């Protein structure tokens, strides 16, 4: 199973503020749903707690170093590390070939060296926040798809959707 990362990042690297997204972007939320539907989604405990519930049509797997952590939802698996989360994703009841890491920063940092694809939304704004996306060595990635979108009544900022594929040596 391949590992993909799905993230929205501002021009100044921010991905979150006080446990929430620091913008309102309907198009990005629709893209998130379309891409992750029928897939396993892997997330850290703080991301799970900010969402607060299993997302319909997806298998939720929470990564936590706390072995006794409970989500309150029997269908949500808790993994002790990324490797165990990927094992759970392989066992998930979905016919998909990739699992998606959806946050937060520590989990992105763990997953970035192993990821095959990066579904990246560049939010064309500098925003305040308390969580940043880790540094990326872009020489290891090539653009496979890209589309630019203008802010409107549903999307607070201009943004670009890009799909990157890892370049393997």
UniProtKB/TrEMBL annotation:
Domain of life: Bacteria
Gene Ontology CC entries for this record: cytosol
Keyword Disulfide bond included in the entry's annotation: no
Pathway assigned to this chain's UniProt record: Cofactor biosynthesis; tetrahydrofolate biosynthesis; 5,6,7,8-tetrahydrofolate from 7,8-dihydrofolate: step 1/1
Enzymatic reactions: (6S)-5,6,7,8-tetrahydrofolate + NADP(+) = 7,8-dihydrofolate + NADPH + H(+)
UniProt-recorded Gene Ontology molecular function terms: dihydrofolate reductase activity; NADP+ binding
Domain DHFR: 2-166
UniProt KW Cytoplasm keyword: no
GO biological process, one term: one-carbon metabolic process
Enzyme class: oxidoreductase
Keywords from the named record: NADP, One-carbon metabolism, Oxidoreductase
Pfam families listed in its UniProt record: DHFR_1
EC numbers, comma separated: 1.5.1.3
Entries under PROSITE patterns matching the protein: DHFR_2
PANTHER family (alphabetical): DIHYDROFOLATE REDUCTASE (PTHR48069)
Role: Key enzyme in folate metabolism. Catalyzes an essential reaction for de novo glycine and purine synthesis, and for DNA precursor synthesis.
Protein family per UniProt: Belongs to the dihydrofolate reductase family.
Name assigned to this protein: Dihydrofolate reductase
